[in-house]
Specification:
Layout: E1 22-24, E2 27-29, E3 36-40, E4 47-52, H1 56-75, H2 78-94, H3 96-107, H4 111-131, E5 138-140, E6 148-155, E7 158-162, H5 170-182, E8 185-189, H6 195-207, E9 215-217, H7 225-234, E10 238-244, H8 247-257, E11 263-267, E12 272-276, H9 282-294, E13 304-310, H10 311-326, H11 346-361, E14 365-368, E15 372-373, E16 383-384, E17 387-390, H12 397-400, E18 407-413, H13 416-424, E19 428-429, E20 431-435, H14 439-448, E21 453-456, E22 471-472, E23 475-476, H15 481-486, E24 489-496
Parallel strand pairs: 7-8, 7-10, 8-9, 10-11, 12-13, 12-20, 13-18, 17-18, 20-21
Antiparallel strand pairs: 1-2, 3-4, 5-6, 6-24, 11-23, 14-17, 15-16, 19-22
Helix pairs in contact: 1-7, 2-4, 2-5, 2-6, 3-4, 3-6, 4-5
Domain Aldehyde dehydrogenase: 28-494
Active site: 267
GO molecular function: succinate-semialdehyde dehydrogenase (NAD+) activity
């Protein structure tokens, strides 16, 4: 780790990518009461931009625009919608460097990861551009003569997309691209910590030819977010909510959506296990946990939160992992050698530190890290040392709550049955990982894990062609893949007689 790094500013080559306004209909506008929301750089703690702090009136205007645009957009041939999405994809790739800088500046991740996220976001736009022309229905064999029976796929209508701060480009692309491909119109609200990237993506979508009103974006502070979202929840014209965030908020959205029976896609909290069996390729397992745990500083919903290692390889694994983690370079995105950036804000740092302190008080051992990084060389208090804990027990906060930080909490286990029981002993079920070279065990453990996503000898799971989502209190619905497109469609059965 280091405490000395360059502090050059991540300037954009194309400043127009920061419109500083929200899009409602055809107009980039201020909030109706002209209130503004400050955006801070987590690497320095300094405010470097402002955006509108939208309110209920803006939220209603956004729905009005989306509802008005829906009939024409749903009637637009799928091939034309696909062409617009392909142009959007091309613009994302053409502006990858600037968008990567914008992500890194408002979210904090290293610049290489910021640019990588842009490519990941674009992959969803490209995928759903191709899938737009494949939303096929069915001709059903009729049980009697003189009848034709069909199942047609139609867009659900206006979609409200509510996105998190940890992947401000990828999450909005993963929601908006399938909505547009299906023929839906969109109202969206990005996270209050990272609105700039989402605004830039919507600006490029507009430049790609998305018609006025088809995408509307309202930015809002944490204080005003409930009033914005409540408007969408109450409005019967909004037929679907797509949300990525906490389980508590997801449950609120589900309860409030019941009055109008909206369709829901909820990608909620995680508590992912990462299991290493005695027969695992140990070096591969180390690489896997490094990729899965420390990407974006551990601030990912599929990040392993609990690492279970079998007796026979436990000590060797902990030693190797500790050495790898201790060598990670911590710093801002302006330093090209940084591997771990700042956490998003002070609340995140406080939670991470609380989890580590609680674990140590209950008997865990710090192998490396375990403290905030402050003082000379650190321009803000948002840095935390990448940490490995051993001797972690199920009663510790880091075992029961999602830490969302660069903390690898390692627990020793003896038997396969013990590991599976521990992995499933959580209300969550988003992602799970395990490493083993025994093919019989691979099939047993895959079947036994209660998780929507399973990585077998692999730490990098997400892909645009794969369905992404959880079970239990990690939510329902899927993003990505043909299943993700289907979540923005409903099925209409048509029966024609007297033929």
């Amino acid at each position: 780790m280091t405490s000395t790094f360059a502090m050059t500013i991540l300037e954009l080559q194309h400043p127009h990518l920061m419109p500083g306004a929200q899009l409602i209909g055809a107009a980039w506008t201020e909030a109706s009461d002209l209130r503004r929301l400050e955006v801070s750089d987590p690497a320095t703690g300094q405010v470097f931009a402002t955006v509108p702090d939208g309110n209920a009136a803006d939220a209603r205007a956004a729905v009005d625009a989306a509802a008005a645009a829906f009939p024409a957009w749903r009637a637009t041939p799928a091939k034309q919608r696909a062409a617009i999405l392909k142009r959007w994809n091309d613009l994302l790739i053409a502006h990858q460097d600037d968008l990567g800088r914008l992500i890194s500046r408002e979210q904090g991740k290293p610049l290489a990861e910021g640019k990588g996220e842009v490519a990941y976001a674009a992959s969803y736009v490209e995928w759903f551009a191709e899938e737009a022309t494949r939303a096929n229905g069915d001709i059903i064999p009729a049980p009697v003569t003189g009848r034709r029976m069909m199942a047609l796929k139609e867009p659900v209508g206006v979609v409200a997309a509510i996105t998190p701060w940890n992947f401000p480009a990828a999450m909005i692309a993963r929601k908006i691209a399938p909505a547009l491909a299906a023929g839906c119109t969109v109202v969206c609200k990005p996270a209050e910590d990272t609105p700039l990237t989402s605004l830039a993506l919507v600006l490029l979508a507009q430049q790609a030819g998305v018609p006025a009103g088809v995408i509307n974006i309202v930015t809002a502070s944490r204080e005003r977010t409930p009033e914005v979202v409540d408007v969408w929840l109450a409005d019967s014209r909004v037929r679907k909510i797509s949300f990525t965030g906490s389980t508590a908020v997801g449950k609120h959205l589900a309860r409030r959506s019941a009055d109008t029976l909206k369709k829901l896609s909820l990608e909620l909290g995680g508590n992912a296990p990462f299991i290493v069996f005695d027969d695992a390729d140990l070096d591969a397992a180390i690489e896997g946990v490094m990729a899965a745990k420390f990407r974006n500083g551990g601030q990912t919903c599929v990040s392993p939160n609990r690492v279970y290692v079998q007796d026979g390889v436990h000590d060797a694994f902990v030693a190797k992992l500790g050495a790898r983690v201790a060598a990670l370079k911590v710093g801002p995105a302006t330093d090209p050698s940084s591997q771990i950036g700042p956490m998003i804000n002070a609340r995140a740092i406080a939670k991470i530190d609380r989890h580590v302190r609680d674990a140590v008080e209950r008997g865990a051992k710090i192998i490396t890290g375990g403290q905030r990084l402050q003082g000379e060389g650190y321009a803000s208090d948002n840095y935390y040392a990448p940490t490995v804990l051993s001797n972690v027990g199920p009663d510790m906060l880091c075992s029961g709550e999602e830490t969302f930080g660069p903390i690898a909490a390692v627990t020793r286990f003896a038997t396969e049955e013990e590991a599976i029981a521990a992995a499933n002993a959580t209300p969550f079920g988003l992602a799970a990982y395990f490493y083993s070279t025994d093919m019989r065990r691979v099939h047993r453990v895959t079947d036994a894990l209660e998780s929507g996503i399973v990585g077998i000898n692999e730490g990098a799971l997400a892909a645009e062609a794969a369905p992404f989502g959880g079970v239990k209190e990690s939510g329902y619905g899927r993003e990505g893949s043909v299943h993700g497109l289907d979540d923005y469609l409903h099925t209409k059965y048509v029966c024609q007689g007297q033929l």
